[in-house]
Amino acid sequence: MNLHNVIRLKDTTFVDVRSPQEFRDGHIPNSINIPLDVIEYRIGTLQSLSKPVVLCCASGNRSHQAYQKLREKGCHEIVDGGAWRDVYIHQM
What we know:
Blueprint: H1 3-8, E1 13-16, H2 20-24, E2 32-33, H3 43-48, E3 53-57, H4 61-72, E4 78-83, H5 84-91
Parallel strand pairs: 1-2, 1-3, 3-4
């Protein structure tokens, strides 16, 4: 399934891996904020979310890092969405 299709699914959960301040400055409606520096410690939270989970950040760098960390820890129902603004545009 490609990213565009995953973004448009009704049950997709969006996880923004930017800092709380960046998240407060703007984010995808109904997304949750789990910063990159704590994401691997929040695997239990991620596993309890509706699937699939789309990771996003400011430019795509941190979401890709989060994706790699989580894949290494066995999380497979995650997608690297890249920049949150791009994900938001494709969600509409």
